[in-house]
Design a protein that fits this description.
51% of the residues lie in helices and 11% in strands. The chain is of the alpha/beta class. The protein has a single domain, classed as TIM Barrel (Alpha-Beta Barrel). The protein starts with a helix and ends with a helix.
């Protein structure tokens, strides 16, 4: 069975069997194992693949994810970035709205992200999920967060023009990711967490529908990530057409789970910094167990970090995450 089809089957069987599945957003910590500077890794799809493969060998993860670097798409549009030896590149310049134009897929480091995706799909046996930014979050990077928020409120026509440019590119980019053979993709739309449900519908989900509908299929899953206070946005987010939602540690995950159909996957929401990165192994194990017990009535909950796990996170803590899920499953076999 193709890995993409196997991922969809894995989600369904986990929900049906009540075996808890773990999919932390862990790729960047693989840089530790290879002793590579982040600057080099973020410029090279080959090195990103090596980090993902090496970390997977250490953890035994059933599902893998690529790097969550939300500067990639903005750089392709022409935004200036500042690289770092330890973390993700940072956007340091915006673009005037009248100068925005849709770049070709493969421009700048989108080509390296696609290279990583292709290597993962061809050389790894586990299903792999790619990643890309969402339309509203991309628009905020392109024009500035405060500028975009103000534009959406008082100049909605201009905001929609920018969002359509962003969505046109992201639709093509998601299709390119699917063509590599990945099992699916996670669309990260964190900035939309700042919007009211109505504005989220109009300025994020309207465009997400276009993007998701163009690429999702029976063997390519699309997961929508929003790490904001999303409790009141759930009905709107469900209307995006995504196959699953991924939520952050800012929410009570039970309030999210209570609003979705029992077979609809919800991923999240262990604190990636306060728990996974900065705590001891025992604390990680206890936090994972607490999350599993809290969501025991919801077999559609997939255990994950609330956002991407920082590069400096101890590998022992990531192993503790998986070990805690494995122990829980062994103790709670039907």
């Amino acid at each position: 069975m193709h890995t993409s089809s196997r991922f969809v089957s894995l989600l369904a069987s986990a929900i049906q069997s009540r075996r808890r599945l773990a999919i932390p957003l862990a790729a960047a910590p693989g840089m530790q194992l290879l002793k590579l500077p982040a600057d080099d890794v973020h410029r090279s799809g080959q090195l990103q693949f090596e980090c993902i493969r090496t970390l997977a060998m250490q953890t035994g993860a059933e599902v893998l994810v690529t790097f969550m670097d939300l500067s990639v798409e903005a750089e392709a549009f022409g935004c200036a970035i500042r690289h770092s030896d330890t973390g993700n590149p940072e956007i340091v310049g915006t673009i005037a709205p009248e100068r925005l134009a849709t770049p070709a897929v493969g421009t700048a480091r989108t080509g390296e992200a696609l290279r990583c995706a292709e290597l993962c799909a061809k050389q790894l046996t586990q299903p792999v999920l790619g990643g890309l930014i969402g339309p509203f979050s991309l628009a905020c990077l392109l024009t500035g967060m405060s500028e975009m928020m103000m534009m959406a409120a008082v100049e909605p026509n201009q905001a929609h023009a920018i969002l359509q440019i962003a969505a046109d590119f992201l639709r093509q980019y998601l299709l390119a990711l699917r063509q590599t053979g990945l099992a699916g993709a996670i669309i990260a739309e964190p900035s939309a967490g700042l919007l009211s449900p109505e504005m989220c519908r109009d300025f994020s989900v309207h465009y997400l529908r276009q993007i998701i509908a163009s690429a999702k299929s029976d063997d390519f899953a699309v997961i929508l990530h929003n790490c904001g206070k999303t409790e009141k946005q759930v009905p709107v987010l469900l209307s995006s057409g995504a196959d699953a939602l991924h939520v952050g540690n800012a929410v009570d995950i039970r309030q999210i789970l209570a609003q979705v159909p029992p077979g609809f996957p919800i991923l999240g929401n262990l604190d990636p910094v306060g728990v996974l990165c900065d705590s001891a192994e025992g604390t990680v194990r206890a936090a994972v167990r607490d999350l599993l017990q809290t969501t025991a009535a919801y077999p559609n909950h997939i255990v994950s970090s609330g956002c991407d796990i920082p590069a400096q996170t101890p590998i022992a803590n990531i192993k503790a995450f998986f070990a805690a899920v494995q122990d829980y499953n062994q103790e709670n076999q039907p």
